[in-house]
């Protein structure tokens, strides 16, 4: 089996300080979009379960992942309510859709690419929880730190499944998506989201 890279060596860039400053200026959007991300992560896992019922390992991993992501949503939603934040609809970041635009259309390559993208989303989530935590109040700091272990495991699960179901080594595809992911994080973005790049307003200051 191919070697599994550590999360710290998987991402090609760190979150820019300007994004952290934007997150601290937009705590309500941060929490709302975080909650939305947890729901989307659960939905992705369930879609994979329905689309690929023939893969037993995928069924086991995605079932557990979906339950954990929904539990995380419940926890974030409780924080939102405790802080009297109005939970509302937000437009998505370009992050996931841009990554998915590079997915191949034939199987099993399509599944492998979707799994690799899942690994990147989980890896970036974990990295952002880690960089944000020291700047947050005690309650949020504790909560975000508590998410690190599960997000790292989700990253590992996605990547292991990609390796398992790929007919070829996945390093080339990982590198392909890594460059796209890096550009999304470092390029200016129109608005702040949990997985956005640096908001344009921050780039002009």
Automatic annotation (TrEMBL):
InterPro entries linked: Ferritin-like, Ferritin-like_SF, tRNA-Hydrxlase_MiaE
Parts forming coiled coils: none
Name recorded for this polypeptide: tRNA-(Ms[2]io[6]A)-hydroxylase
């Amino acid at each position: 089996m191919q070697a599994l890279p550590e999360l710290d060596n998987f991402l090609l860039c760190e979150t820019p300080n300007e994004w952290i400053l934007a997150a601290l200026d937009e705590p309500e959007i941060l929490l709302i979009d975080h909650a939305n991300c947890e729901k989307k992560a659960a939905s992705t896992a369930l879609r994979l379960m329905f689309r690929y019922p023939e893969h037993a390992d995928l069924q086991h991993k995605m079932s557990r992942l979906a339950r954990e992501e929904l539990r995380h949503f419940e926890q974030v939603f409780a924080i939102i309510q405790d802080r009297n934040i109005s939970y509302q609809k937000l437009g998505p970041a370009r992050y996931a859709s841009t990554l998915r635009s590079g997915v191949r259309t034939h199987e099993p390559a399509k599944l492998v690419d979707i799994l690799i993208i899942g690994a990147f989303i989980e890896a970036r989530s974990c990295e952002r929880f880690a960089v944000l935590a020291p700047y947050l109040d005690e309650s949020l700091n504790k909560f975000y730190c508590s998410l690190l272990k599960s997000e790292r495991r989700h990253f590992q699960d996605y990547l292991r499944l990609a390796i398992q179901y790929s007919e070829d080594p996945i390093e080339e595809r990982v590198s392909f998506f890594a460059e796209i992911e890096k550009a999304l994080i470092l390029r200016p973005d129109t608005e702040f989201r949990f997985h956005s790049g640096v908001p344009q307003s921050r780039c002009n200051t």
